[in-house]
Design goal:
Helix content is 40%, strand content 9%. It is mainly α. It has one domain: Ureohydrolase domain (Arginase, Chain A, 3-Layer(aba) Sandwich), CATH 3.40.800.10. α3 crosses α4 and α4 packs parallel to α5.
C-alpha cells in the first residue's frame, strides 16, 4: 500500500501494519495484534491473503509488485501463527496475475500459501470437522459425516 494510502487508513482508524511495523514489533507480536482485532466480537476469521505483501523479487506475478515486502518465510510464519490460533471460516488469495509471472514463481507461492493453510487447519484440529461449527448456516446443509467419493 502506498504511504499515502497508509496515512488515509490510519486517519480513518483502520488497522494497518506495514512491513516496517512488522519488522519492528516482530512476527509473533504482529500476529497477536491481528488476532486480537480479527477475533473481537466474531465467531471465526476469514483470511484474505494478498500475495503482493511478499517482496516482488519472490512474487513478480502480481498487479502491484511491492519492493521491500515480506520474505516468503515471514509471510508463511505469520499465516501459521494466525491459522493455528483462531477458528478459520475461509481463505481467499488475491493479486496473483499469471500473465505477469516469471517461471510460475508467484503461482507456486500462492499454492504454498493454500497448502500451508490446509496443513495448519489439520494440525490445529480445525480439519477434518467432527461437527458443523455454529457459524455455518443451516442453509449450507453440510453433512460432515458423509463419506468421500
Amino acid at each position: 500500500m502506498p504511504r499515502e494510502g497508509v496515512k488515509v487508513c490510519r486517519e480513518r482508524g483502520t488497522n494497518v501494519l506495514t512491513v516496517t511495523d512488522i519488522c519492528e514489533m516482530g512476527l509473533e507480536a504482529a500476529a497477536q495484534f491481528a488476532i486480537e482485532r480479527a477475533t473481537d466480537g466474531t465467531d471465526c476469521v476469514y483470511i484474505s491473503f494478498d500475495i503482493d505483501c511478499i517482496d516482488a523479487g519472490f512474487v513478480p506475478g502480481t498487479g502491484w509488485p511491492e519492493p521491500g515486502g515480506l520474505l516468503p518465510r515471514e509471510a508463511l510464519k505469520l499465516l501459521e501463527l494466525i491459522v493455528r490460533n483462531v477458528p478459520v471460516c475461509g481463505l481467499e488469495l488475491v493479486e496473483v496475475s499469471p500473465p505477469y509471472d516469471i517461471s510460475d514463481m508467484t503461482s507456486l507461492m500462492a499454492c504454498r500459501v493454500i497448502c500451508d493453510t490446509m496443513a495448519h487447519l489439520v494440525v490445529s484440529g480445525q480439519l477434518p470437522r467432527k461437527h458443523k461449527p455454529s457459524w455455518i448456516s443451516d442453509v449450507c446443509n453440510m453433512n460432515v459425516d458423509q463419506t468421500w467419493r
